Structure to design on (633 residues):
């Protein structure tokens, strides 16, 4: 048998892909969970190995089916997508470790194995989007991840989960269609679907109106998928009504992967010069990003349901990431990738903690959480750490994000952006404080005095994610090194 | 449907030919137009026709939902399994050339097995969708 390490880019996707039908065949929740967990742990190991190889030996290219590019489908891994692969697979593994008790409580007994089937399918799609070097293949995986996440969201306990999933389905399909129209236009103009080949052929025809239209379609489509303001309307309901494990996984990964694709198309295929000098992409991204930072945070303040509050906070955080992208500098791209990584950690920790609370008290309304600080001290510790990280307090991962973001803004001589970033972080302080106040300084509502700490199987992964927020606030080598390397590659237009 | 004699007899006559045509499209796919997607849909249409004429209960007896659901997964596994076979044969994932000593024969075998996997999943999915929509009142 050949050396498996050569095949890592393919295995990254096909191991979870095979796990999905196996989960369906398993038929029982326990067995399906073992298969799903093993596959996502294997995917994490693969991603770690790929990250190691890309840092030390540079970009990896893999030819699907032995067909060389540009004819065949090429998988390309460089530091930019290696960091995404690592984030997605690691979050999936921790969330799966968290999920058995949560799923047993929230999903109907007959469809629990289907939940795991959909979960690994969603993981497959997200990993595939990140790993592929083929523009059409991105669309295929985008659909795999989206369709499975619609199904996952619809599995939420309340009936509103169905409308939330349907709303997401409509918006997500519009986004995917726009993306596909853009890729189709590019295919007409270049005759190729391979990203590297497309980049080479597009260079000569950048003035063509078709190419500009393709760029517009792709940007809008991906902005919809990434929930960039004002295209975020599907997101709050989807996150709020999805099962806890799904909220944690999708909030931490799905929108980030779309932002990665936006980076890939903007910088690698079209080139920074085309997007930012020929076309005003910086303003197109900057203005909605700043509005998102404020509108998202302000909406979060007025939410009564904490999952919805966190969802609106995600809208604001995506604003920070797009803000960093809009600077189109090496520092800006590093900040964007670092925040993609760190925000994944924060939101996974916070949504997992919400899962713990929902498990015990059956609701995530802020009024019902009053006084939980004494009853569920460890879960609340995770929430406080996640909240501090969201604010960007020193010694947490969020601080590193904000630090690089502010530096990138200062480097671009946009000092007023720094003020706006600081102001919007203050708004985050308001909604996090509301939560802390309710949990620690209020008496529990009648009927909920007896809540106990969540079971260890849920608590440990939650605390692990909270701990990761602190770890990556102290030891920033991994995300920063990968992000800076990736920023250089992206700006040079290399894959 | 007891009294629709024409419909019953014509569909009974047609169903074997629909299945036969599906198999033709399936296994001729590597020489001419056709392949797993089209064949799967045609194959499923035979079952859907049967379900429409003879009722959902009878269709469920012919194609038990539990089996059909498993076939959805089996098709994907056939596809992915072929990919892995290429991998273990010394080629890249999905490299059918590595399935046989002669790469051309390998390519031929590979695409046939892959298309069979596609056909299985598509047919089973179509039948499942029909069952789900037809049985919605329950």
């Amino acid at each position: 048998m050949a050396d498996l390490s050569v095949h890592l880019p393919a295995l990254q996707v096909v191991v979870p892909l095979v796990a999905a039908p196996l989960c369906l065949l398993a038929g029982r929740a326990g067995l399906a969970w073992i298969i799903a967990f093993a596959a996502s742990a294997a995917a994490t190991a693969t991603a770690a190995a790929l990250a190691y190889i890309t840092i030390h030996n540079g970009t990896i290219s893999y030819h699907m089916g032995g067909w060389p590019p540009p004819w065949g489908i090429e998988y390309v891994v460089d530091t930019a997508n290696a960091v995404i692969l690592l984030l997605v697979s690691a979050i999936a593994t921790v969330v799966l470790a968290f999920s058995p008790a949560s799923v047993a409580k929230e999903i109907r007994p007959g469809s629990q194995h289907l939940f795991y089937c959909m979960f690994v399918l969603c993981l497959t799609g997200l990993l595939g989007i990140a790993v592929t070097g083929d523009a059409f293949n991105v669309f295929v995986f985008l659909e795999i991840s989206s369709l499975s996440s619609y199904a996952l969201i619809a599995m939420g306990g309340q009936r509103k989960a169905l409308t939330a999933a349907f709303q997401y389905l409509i918006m997500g399909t519009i986004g995917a269609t726009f993306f596909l129209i853009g890729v189709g236009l590019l295919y007409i103009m270049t005759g190729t679907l391979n990203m590297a080949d497309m980049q080479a052929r597009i260079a000569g025809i950048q003035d063509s109106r078709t190419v500009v239209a393709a760029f517009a379609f792709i940007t809008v489509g991906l902005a919809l998928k990434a929930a960039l303001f004002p295209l975020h309307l599907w997101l709050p309901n989807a996150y709020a009504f999805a099962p806890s494990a799904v909220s944690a996984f999708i909030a931490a990964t799905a929108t980030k992967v779309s932002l990665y694709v936006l980076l890939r198309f903007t910088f690698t295929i079209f080139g920074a010069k085309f997007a930012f000098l020929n076309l005003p992409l910086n303003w197109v991204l900057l203005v909605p990003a700043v509005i998102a930072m404020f509108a998202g945070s302000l909406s979060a303040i007025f939410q009564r349901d904490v999952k919805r509050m966190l969802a609106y906070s995600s809208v604001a955080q995506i604003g920070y990431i797009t803000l960093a992208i809009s600077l189109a500098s090496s520092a800006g791209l590093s900040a964007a990738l670092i925040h993609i990584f760190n925000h994944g950690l924060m939101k996974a920790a916070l949504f997992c903690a919400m899962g713990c609370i929902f498990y015990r008290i059956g609701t995530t309304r802020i009024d019902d959480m009053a006084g939980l600080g004494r009853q569920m001290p460890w879960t609340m510790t995770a929430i406080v750490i996640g909240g501090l990280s969201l604010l960007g307090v020193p010694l947490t991962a969020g601080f590193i994000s904000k630090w690089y973001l502010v530096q990138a803004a200062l480097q671009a001589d946009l000092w007023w952006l720094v003020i706006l970033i600081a102001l919007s972080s203050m708004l985050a302080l308001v909604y996090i404080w509301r939560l802390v106040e309710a949990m620690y300084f209020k008496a529990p509502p009648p009927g909920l005095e007896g809540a106990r700490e969540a079971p260890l199987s849920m608590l440990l992964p939650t605390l692990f994610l909270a701990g990761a927020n602190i770890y990556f606030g102290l030891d920033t080598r991994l995300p920063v090194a990968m992000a800076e390397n990736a920023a250089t590659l992206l700006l040079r237009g290399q894959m | 449907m007891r009294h629709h004699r024409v419909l019953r007899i014509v569909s009974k006559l047609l169903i074997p030919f629909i299945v036969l045509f599906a198999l033709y499209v399936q296994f001729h796919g590597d020489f001419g137009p056709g392949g797993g997607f089209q064949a799967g849909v045609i194959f499923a249409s035979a079952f859907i026709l049967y379900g429409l004429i003879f009722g959902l209960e009878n269709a469920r007896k012919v194609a038990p939902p539990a089996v059909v659901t498993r076939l959805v997964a089996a098709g994907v596994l056939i596809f992915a399994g072929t990919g892995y076979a290429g991998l273990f044969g010394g080629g890249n994932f999905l490299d059918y050339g590595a399935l046989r000593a002669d790469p051309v024969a390998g390519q031929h075998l590979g695409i046939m097995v892959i298309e069979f996997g596609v056909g299985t999943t598509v047919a089973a999915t179509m039948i499942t969708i029909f069952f789900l929509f037809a049985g919605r009142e329950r």
Remarks:
- The mean pLDDT of chain A is 91.
